[in-house]
Design brief:
three-stranded antiparallel beta sheet, 3 strands
Amino acid sequence: MGIPIMWQPGQEGREDLWLGDASRPHLRLLAVDSLESRDTVDRWAAQADSVPEFLEMLHLEGLIDLDRFYALVRQHDPLYAAACAILACLPHRRVGGQIDDPPRQLYPLIEHMTQALEPFVSDPVARAIIADALGTYWASWIGRREDLDHDVNAARQALNEVLTGASTGVRIVQPGDLTLTPEAVRAMIGYVLETHPSGEV
């Protein structure tokens, strides 16, 4: 596929690498000062199938650090940024956290995640579905819950499919074996926004 990139003169004889958008520089990624680094970037730009994959290769090649990688992915992909924002609300990312008193522990957490989504998701219904699905999955990941509405259960199933690879039902694993990732949560957010298009970013 290939990623559209552009080189521009930078400071102190360096070259700045930009993501291209309609033949214009869109997002500055890094500066290089050697032909070897530029060749590495050009090679991965030609081979990558997506911008996140390209950025990951730049990180693995030592051209950007992990913090810069995540910052660039968030700038490039608003849904990834939304996933990072709501994951930051959780005390940890291990699935199956014990919640002894949902009204006092889980519900305020879900409300906090709903608020964290506001800059990214315009529809309050879609925000509520996303936050409810993530919060209840994080707290008690097992199966379909009858106390949740259909849209929340469907979003939980979409998240489960990404995390476990199970396309039907829920794969039996120990709760501590699952860790929420921005990529999985991003996929769930995308699913909800496809089924509720008024909530698009």
